[in-house]
Protein 1
Amino acid sequence: MNAIAEKYKTVKIDDVKVWFKAAHVNDFPEDGGACVKYKDLQIAVFNFKRLNSWFACQNLSPEKEEMVLSRGMIGDHKGIPMVACPLHKKTFSLETGENLNGELEPIAIYPVKIEEENVYIGFSE
Amino acid sequence: MKHIIVVGNGMVGYKFCEKFVQKSEFKNFKITVFGEEPRPAYDRVHLSEFFENQDAKALEMAPAEWYADNNIDLITGERVSDISRQDKTIKTAKDREFSYDYLVLATGSSPFVPPIKGVEKEGVFVYRTIEDLEGMLAYAAKLKAEKPNAKAAVLGGGLLGLEAGKAVMDMGLEPHIVEFASKLMPRQLDLRSSQVLQLKLESIGLNIHLSKATNQILGNGSVVGLEFGEDDVLDVDMLIISAGIRPRDELGKNSGLEVGVRGGIVVNDKMQTSDEHIYAIGEIALYNQMIYGLVAPGYDMAGVAVEQIIGSTEVVMPADIDMSTKLKLIGVDVASFGEPFMPASKGHSIIFENKTQHLYKRINVSHDGKKLLGGILVGDASTYNMLHQIYLNGMAIPEDPSQLILPASDGASSFGDVTDLPDEAQVCSCESVTKGQICSAIENGEATDVAGVVSCTKAGTGCGGCKPMVADLTNATLKALGIEVKEGVCEHFELSRQDLYKIIQVKGYTKFNEVLDNHGTGGHGCELCKPLIASLMASINADTANKEYAIQDSNDRFLANIQRNGTYSVVPRVPGGEITPDKLIALGEIAKKYDLYTKVTGGVRIDLFGATLKQLPLIWKDLISHGFESGHAYGKSLRTVKTCVGSTWCRYGMAESVSFGIELENRYRGIRAPHKIKGGVSGCIRECAEARGKDFGLIAVEGGWNLYLGGNGGATPRHAELFAEQIDNETVIKYLDRYLMFYMRTAKPLQRTAAWQERLEGGLDYLKEVIIDDKLGIVEDLENEMQTLVNKFECEWTQAVNNPEMMKRFNHFVNSEEEDDNLVFVPMREQKMPEPWN
């Protein structure tokens, strides 16, 4: 794994030190995503309207290390909320980051909260 | 360990090995196979397919590695020249000696070349091996270069001769069939059915000459004609002899085995020759004083020989061998089963004939009207499998047997169901697979679909004629077990694409969630059903991809093609490939302004690579201001209509291919389909636009356009099929509207026209009935639907750049104006490219 992928580590809700105010809820499409910049990180944030939930993960696809996951389609695979990478349709769980249709490294997952119609992403630093 | 030597590596010789390795006793044996040809055994039954793809590998029964993997020594390119029965050894043409415990002769047959004066001339071929075909292809290519309308004749109007006639057509030569008898396929067909077949073949361009005895082959060095009588000469530039076969029995003769008067090595019902250690199988074996030239009895003989050698001596060849056969000759169904010609003393015949539709059906029924004894089908053999089963199993037939061949007036089948067959009914005669074996493969869980049944029973892997029946049986058995036969598009929909199309059309859905909530299986959709439903709603409601962009496929979402580093490429439409110098300059300047890698695409358009998400709308604003519009290179929709320059400039052009190509491209642009669609228009038969490799292709001929449909490049190249000839522009558009709309309604997800057309039940004939004859009564709807789509066309890029809300999605970050800092480009040939992947 090279340097760029190592920057992304899953953050558990208990480890959140910084809640970063990313954007207004309306800046994200319903049942779709957009990319948020935080320091030198790129985070894909998804408005999973059908579940009334929000998810965040690294924007970096672990397959070829391109910044594209926020442009992927979301949905579910056997009930697990997932995002499909737009390059080769590799799917990743939005809950655990696990690659659902292959053997790729899991992606990093970040907590999301909504306050007063604003989207916050949780980071540990 | 006993050593078996198999002489001959044809279809039957291979089958012997295949059946042997499946036996547990195989561990006590060692097999060595000799083949005279340079390559391992291939499927000679489908030899004419070699002309379509020239892919010898595709015809192989098994690759060379298969023999090695199964511990069989395969020695190709080495003929066995002698047998010494006393020492139980053989000698090869390379003078090597091998000893055997059992010898299996499967040397097959060679084409019979009648002793006509001049057969040695250049340009005379036989039709048997891939090498023969390669020789023919090379000669035909040479002929065509010298003479555009060269002719070739086939001597012999039997089954193989007609196959060779197809080969001649495929090579682009004018085909002639010369037959000594007064009818075609004299062994299989009666006079009337033969005449129907002749009419049909003539209608597709075969020239047929019956009752012709060839006196000599004319020409000085190479063939120039055939002489039948004094003033009866046929000018031809090439001749293919297909006048029957002769068993390759010289090994048997020389070693003193008993042979028949007219050739063939005599065998008993154990497939043993007059020497008990030597077996003969396939076209070399003379059994019941007959040579069986079909593959199914050859396979049975291979099976009997295997059983005899491993000691199951009770397995013998039956006395009656079923010679029923069904084939597609040059696209025409021909089948005969049981006793095709029956003397009136044994029963009576019922005949249905329609010469205008080139149909002939005959069944022979016992005097008491209870048993089917045989029959002939020409033009439509869709009922062959059922009739054949009724005959084989002595099943009851309707009180009025004519129902078996007359078109049913109420649409009801006269046959009942495939499930009515007895378990022992042989469904696949090439591989001897019974109905019981197929059903039990499913019942005991070995197979869950047609592909599984085929791979575990081998049914349908021979001539393939039984495939529809295998599919019916599989589906019926699954159904009986309560297993639903699923055609659903993904885990979220059990419905097929065709069903979803109808539902969305009838219910008027415009949102993904409406379809999912009302017709899905629960869940939230996925990368399979979202773009599919987006495409269906676009096809039905004439929407662009700007609507509900989060369900659009990767490329449609940003109206551009995502490239490997996450940047995009931009392809403006250049209809028919015609572009003004000013527009060409504009393209160059825009590419320069945004530093885009520039290349002419495979579809003769100009592609600009390396645009970031943020740059896309800026680039498009510039392009639109110079009069460009979206080229839909990113969509499952019409790409280009490629054109040659046609009569506008070309001295050979017969029509204005560019003008018509532009008209067609502008007509169908932007329409969402199951997959991408490409068109081509050529101004003459030189076909510079390669129109036959496209989903729809037009070639200008005297008196109009020839319309070809269902072509494809890509991974499975396929030439488009000729659909209509010499039609005018208006008719082309009418047929294309109907064809494309019918494809959009009924294809599977991501199925190109080629694959769709190939799997369409009833094939091209059915397609013609639907589109030209309006069999389903839908052409008016199809035309209206298409016209609505054409009228509602809107450039989705113009729509996007003029709408601030839509523009919001073209930002890399939602909270920053910055670009993706992960992009790295490296220089290449004065342009740039993304840093290579590791």
Protein 2
Amino acid sequence: MINVEKVGYHIAGRPLLQNVSFVAETGQLLAIIGANGAGKSTLLKILSKELAPDSGKVEMRGENLKSIRSNQLARFRAVLAQNNALAFNFNVSELVMMGRYPHFDGSPSKQDHEIVEYALQQTDITHLRDRIFLTLSGGEQQRVLLAKVLAQLTDIEDIYGLPHPVPQPKYLLLDEPITGLDLYHQHNLLEIIRTLTLRNFCVIAILHDLNLTMQYADKVLILNSGKTIAFGKPVQVMTPATIFSAFHIPVDIIHPPEYTHPFIVHSRSFSEQPMLEEKWGRSNGQSQGFYL
Amino acid sequence: MSITAEKPATKLIQIGKPFQQSVILTLLVVGLVVSACISACVGAVKISLSELYYILLNQLGIANQHFEEQQQLILTVIRLPRVLLGVMIGAVLGITGAAMQGLFRNPLADPGLIGISSGASLFAVSAIVLELKILSDLSGWVGLYALSAFAFAGACLATILVYQISRSGGKVHISTMLLAGIAVNALTGALTGLLIYLANDAQLRTITFWSLGSLGGANWPVVWVLLPFVCITLFGLPRLGKALNAFSLGESQAEHLGINAASLKRQVILFCTLGVGVSVAMAGLIGFVGLVVPHMIRLLVGANHRLVLPGSALLGAIVLTLADLTARTIVAPAELSIGILTALLGAPVFLYILLKEHKR
């Protein structure tokens, strides 16, 4: 699990994150939502050790992130970044093989090749293996990069369903992974992520789509101006009130009886205040989530 | 997780297969041996292949056959060191070009970008024009290579300057480095220009000759001076292939894959400065090899630096060996500057590659 304790980060005296605390469990997808400039990407950069927090600490596997060496970290933590400008004409299988780089020196082993093959299959891009990455469509590129992080976090035991000699949790950090994907591939990618949480991965993703968050996330962290607004299960903490304070937009939450999860709709003018009750909803018992 | 069958890729690009890649590297090695032999045999005094073979065996003390004194001398004193010099400098220019393009994540980069060549030029030209006292005071072996040593010092100083400018907060910023390189190149270029005003006719000739590059100064001591630097570069850079691959995704993504970006930058710059600095010092400015050769290799083996780096070294060596052969035979008994030839051949090849890439 990832334990974030009172993390703060400033740039030129301006606070980007203040006193952010939460716990991301293994086997769960934690979504970070919030308006532009809320501090989501900064938080993800701190979690991926790209930035060091000014205050507070981040623990991964019970160890302070600060004291884990980068090459060690790369063996159990992968990051799917948002901005992917590849400089040269690598083909797809070479790019996916880069995910194995933390695991070998010199040349890739037979097992590394097997894992790359497995990652290509899992993301349905085996037919693209010899294509040049830069000639692919945006959605295809995103799946290739997902295959890369998958290859980074997959052990040979996972492929054959063998028990791990030392079972270790894996961590996956995703920065807006579904932005730019069509509806089908958005769900496809989130389904893949769900299979990873079933394999006991700890996944943290920045998402912009509130309904997909409601549908797929196990936990949600709502940020506004670098501060936590709410943290907990989506159905419990994604309320018209929290969403209004995070996005300044009035929404209704509706829960048609034939669906397992509620929907968030915006259908009224900006000036109106949000309704504070769910339509058709169950009465909202406050249990595990908290509001700030 | 099922996906409705997508249209299979109609145009499979057939590069990047491991089998083909090793075949291409083998062919390059063969090509290098062949071009080195041709270059050693062809010239004012012709030497046949079998003569070359036996003279080399003689030299190694394996065979003992008698040859015409002249051929043996020409080969061992003139041709052989010159061919070796061409091979070494070509390999260094090719591999450093590939490494620089990887580091800057830009296919237009070459070692000259961070001031190596212009720094060497400035120092070499000032040594020539100001007829520095130190140069004439030094005698013997050191004196002979004082100009080279001076040029090498200039290359190192310019690179260190660029490197330091681009450092802030303990981090080297690649984009700042590019801009600092342009600025330092402009400055050293201007200073070199000023010095040329002061030069007399004889000095001008020396400067022109130096700035167009030539392997004419080849002899065994030059080869021995160059050898350790070349070895460091040729063994140091290919180790960084994996890291440079990851680096092409961007600095932060390389870090996510466990690559130490700071150490990678330091190593690439160090190896390039050592190799190119000493090459420029010995043979003057030889353009276009470092820029074009990696592009040609990428067309053959794909983008993987683990192949591009050794491939560029091999092809660079081939190209420079053949260019030097042409340079010294085409207007014989005079000699063309090799820099003219590499640019003359390199520029059209580069344009061809650009147009071809554009169409893809």
